[in-house]
Write a structure and sequence with these properties.
Residues 249-347 form the HTH araC/xylS-type domain. Keywords: DNA-binding, Transcription, Transcription regulation. GO terms for molecular function: DNA-binding transcription factor activity; transcription cis-regulatory region binding. This is Helix-turn-helix domain-containing protein. It comes from Acetobacter estunensis. The chain has 2 domains: 18-234, H-NOX domain; 242-348, Arc Repressor Mutant, subunit A (Orthogonal Bundle). It is an alpha+beta fold. It is elongated. α2 packs across α3, α5 (95-101) runs antiparallel to α6 (106-120) and α5 (95-101) crosses α9. The protein has a 5-stranded mixed β-sheet with strand order 3-4-7-5-6. A two-stranded antiparallel sheet has the order 1-2. It has 15 helices and 7 strands.
């Protein structure tokens, strides 16, 4: 089983939650089949109605969710996400789909789905848990700015159900399906699509099924293909990590620019970055940081840089790093490096 770390973007607003553009494949034709104009839907929601040209192409997840909502309105199909997901072949997920389908057995396929999903879609979690002979496949988006994604949730669980049906046949049904959102006006469609009871207003978005099926062989199992796809997904992950590092450098520069005016609040930094402060705070937490520690790290790094340059006195360095009193800077420097700034300068001159 492959385990992957979860990565979420933090930094400028431009680093929004994204999903690999393979999810758009077939959306235009499905909208057209239901009697609406895809170009109208895509233009209203900020999505281009085209297929992805590169495996690493992405689209903003919030725009994708808005497109599903808009498509439901334009086509008059209340359960648009459910039915789009119901007919969505897992291989159309692109690299994620092929990684899952080329796994050896169903249990491994679902574990790989959970492991690779954060690369496919930022700030999102899929987990596969087994207890007491029952398996639970859970899905959720952790970005608080994407709180209403009913059509996305129904689409996703329908696609996950299709993954299992690849191994067990089109008539397979879970024991039950759970959704976090409230029940829509028409719920008969959901039980028809999933073939089981569907409950709404639940703590999670979950497929619940017997653990006995996990040993079923995946019909398209291919170890060589899986290895190649895994390498491609890891490459995409490295690209995202590099983008996160670039965003972090930008955050540090914003903090440094604000420090001469005093200790900057998290709200001030978030405003400069163009995102709500709670989003910035959560992204720092996702990266294993706290705002206080990040400011301290910036101060610690630039304290040495400024003092090495010799053109900055201790008092000037203290001011540039946001200390209202030189004594506060001296105490902080001594805590960091074990001696006062003046002693350090004498030892390194």
């Amino acid at each position: 089983m492959t385990r992957m770390p979860v990565h979420g973007h933090f930094g400028p607003a431009a680093a929004s939650t994204t999903v690999l553009a393979s999810v758009v494949y077939g959306l235009d034709s499905f909208i057209a089949r239901l009697g609406a104009q895809p170009v109208n839907v895509f233009s209203r929601c900020g999505l281009e109605g085209r297929r992805s040209t590169l495996p690493s192409d992405t689209v903003p997840l919030d725009a994708y969710c808005r497109t599903l909502d808009c498509a439901a309105q334009e086509t008059g199909t209340e359960n648009f996400g459910l039915w789009f997901g119901h007919q969505f072949a897992p291989r159309r997920l692109g690299m994620l789909g092929y990684a899952v389908l080329s796994s050896s057995v169903l249990g491994e396929a679902l574990d790989n789905l959970a492991a690779f999903f954060p690369i496919h879609q930022d700030n999102s979690v899929v987990s596969h848990r087994k207890q007491g002979g029952v398996s639970r496949l859970n899905y959720d988006v952790t970005d608080p700015l994407i709180h209403d994604h009913r059509h996305d949730a129904e689409l996703s669980l329908a696609v996950f159900c299709n993954v299992i049906r690849e191994a067990l046949g089109p008539d397979w049904a879970p024991m039950r399906v759970l959704f976090r959102h409230k029940a829509p006006a028409c719920v008969d469609d959901h039980e028809k699509a999933f073939g089981c009871p569907v409950l709404f207003g639940q703590p999670t978005n979950t497929l619940v099924f017997s653990e006995d099926i996990l040993t079923a062989v995946m019909p398209d199992a291919d170890g060589i293909l899986f290895s190649a796809i895994k390498a491609g997904l890891l490459q995409i992950q490295r690209g995202k990590q590099a983008a996160d590092q670039k965003s972090l450098r930008h955050v540090r520069q914003v903090i440094l620019d604000l420090l001469p005016h005093g200790y900057p609040s998290i709200a001030q930094v978030a405003e400069r970055l163009g995102c709500p402060y709670w989003t910035f705070q959560r992204r720092l937490a996702d990266a294993g940081m706290t705002y206080r520690n990040l400011v301290e790290d910036v101060r610690r790094h630039y304290a040495l840089k400024y003092l090495r340059e010799a053109e900055h006195s201790v008092a000037q360095t203290a001011f540039r790093l946001g200390y209202s009193e030189g004594s506060a800077f001296t105490r902080a420097f001594t805590r960091w490096y074990g001696c006062s700034p003046r002693v350090w300068i004498s030892s390194n001159s």
